[in-house]
Amino acid sequence: MAKVPPPRFVIVQQQPDKRPYIWSAVGVAWSLSLVAAWFWSQSLAAPRLPKLVAELETTQRELRDRQNQLDRLAQREATLQRSDQISRAANKQVQGSLAQRDAEISDLRADIAFYERLVGATAPAKGLNVHSVEFQPETGGTWRYQIVLTQNLNRGAVSNGGLQFQVEGVRGGKLASIGWDELHQKPKAPIQDYSFRYFQQLGGSVMLPAGFTPQRVRVSLRGENAAIEQHFAWKSGVTVTGET
Question: Which segments of the protein form a coiled coil according to its record (predicted)?
Answer without folding.
Answer: 49-83
